[in-house]
Structures are given as structure tokens and as C-alpha cells.
Design brief:
This protein has 362 residues and is an alpha+beta fold. It is built from nine helices and 16 strands.
Length: 362
Amino acid sequence: MDPVSVARALVDELFPGALYAFVGGSVLTERRTSTSDLDVVVVLDGLAVPYRESLRWHGWPVELYVHSETSLNAYVDRDLAERKPGVARMCADGAVLVDRTGGRASDLQTALGERLAAGPGDLAGTRAERARYGLSDLLDDLAGATDPGEQLFIRWQVVQETARLALDVGGRWRGNGKWLLRELREHDPALADDLLTAHSDPALLTTVALGVLERAGGRLWEGYRAEGDSFHLPLRHIASDALSGDTTQSAGMRRMAAISGVTAGSANLWMGQTHVAPATRSSDHHHGASETAIYVVSGSPRFVFLQDGRERRIEAAPGDYVYVPPYTPHREENPDPEREAVVVIARSTQEAIVVNLPDLKG
């Protein structure tokens, strides 16, 4: 059987209720080998904990990437921010095995294909300087290495960092292992050949690496300075009448920002108030990668989420605290017909990340 048919049969048997699924990777290309596995991305409705699993199915090696729609989007966003296109490519370039959503699988392929085609952008600022410094420092180590074992390890590190810098300067995606070479061959096949030829010759390897450094702005060692965290900054006071409503909102709620990157210059913290009107419920939502802590000031708010597929309600009172983990779909309710509920919220990001959802399954 061909890989797509095998993968489709696997999903039908192991995940009969999957929203949609893809198979991707080398197994669908001319690079397929006797050890190529089936890279299968499966999206389930309301999966609480995504997971990766390696297994054999009817003699085929399989790598499973099992997600909810929320977790898949979060993992893809995280990887692309780190210039890693692996899972995004499995979905965008792979074959759709099943789609029970009326087209969301193909919509996702289109969206990811556009993001991949746009590339990660140029490496700039402190990250670019750090990359130049790192490779320059390795070349100094290589020039002074006298231990054959140490030199071997340094040479291999120079090969990898030279390839990564070339991809970064070219605004291309990175890769690991064989995918680093594949990305480089697609971007600059001559450089890939040069690195393969020079990997055992320190002098030639240095010449190749210096050529890539010139593309990035040249060697950088003497004078390089990396700023650490700031200390002894002044305190900031945000008065109660200075709270801002210029933050993401959900239906049924009014959020007011107090501490944020804009109001206080915070880097890893957002804090503010949320008001829930009488006899009102918010839309279902989550807060992305943010951890959220809630202190109830007044009223009797409820916090609703799914546990083992069933709705669970936390009945809170003034003085209570509630913790909301990252990416957990939930909503706030105020059953009181007359009084609004007021809570103070702190999140572990400077932004008030709010992703509104159609339901609690996420």
C-alpha cells in the first residue's frame, strides 16, 4: 500500500472521531528510504493534553503528533517563532487523510502554506549580533585547537552554525539533522557543497565560514556586548482612574488594563480588572501561553471549564483565588441578577492574550 492509504487506515482505526489529519514528511517524497516513517498529525476535538508517540503499525514506523486545534496552533506558532517549520510543513505540504469539519483542514493548509512561503524574515538586532559572535568565537576555538577530538567537535559545530547563519541571513527556515542540510541545499546548494567538502579541513572550513560571516556583517568578537536584565528601575504607579479599556475583550465582559507593557513597561506580566455584568456570561475563550491568576473582589462569579468531557463550575466568592492554566478553554459567568462581579487578573505575559472560541472544546 502507498503511504497515504496506510496512514488513512491508521487514522480510521486509531482515531475514528478525528476532526482532521495529515500525513507528511520524507515518506511522501523522492527522498523516501527504507526507514522513513509516517509523520501523522491528528487533530481531535477538545483534547486536553497533546502528545507525540512513536509506534509501529502493520510494520510501518509511525510518528504521531496528536493535538486539539488550540494546541496545534500554539505549537506551530511557537515553532515558527523559533524559525522551525517542521510541524507546519507536515500539515501544509502533507496529504489530508480525513476532514470532518467541512474544510478546516484545507483552510489550515492554505494559511500555513502562506506563512511558510513568506519565510521567517531576516535575523536582526541582538539575535543577529549573537549569531555573528557565536560563529566568530568558534572560529577562534578552531584556530587554537590542538586536541584532535576537540577539533573534530568544533569543526562540526562550525559547519552547523555556518549553515544556520546562512539560512538566517537569507530569511529562510532552519532545520535540524538532515533537514538542516536540506534547507541549505534548497537555499544555497554551492555553500552546502562547500561545507561538505571543507568539514574535515580546518583552514578551508574557516574560509567558508568567513564568507558567510561577511554576508551577515563580518566577524564580531572584540567589542561585542550583550546587555543583561535591567536592575533598579523606578517603580510605576497606575491610579485607579488611569486604567485602560484598550485591551482585547470578550462578549459579556469588560476588561481594564492596569499593568502592561504599554502602561508600565512590564515584560512578563499583565494585570488588570474584569467586570462581568449581572446575569451575564462571557464567551468561551483561552489566554494562549499566559498563566492567569484571578482574585475575586466582589460578586459571585463562576468559572466554567471542561474536565473529562463534562462542564465543571467553580463557584467563587470575594477573597477567593482561581488559577487558569495556559490554553485552557473556559468562561466566566455572573448568575447574580443585580450585582456585577469584579475580579483582579494577573497574567504571565505583558499582553492580555484572549482567544475567543466557539465552545469549551477549543
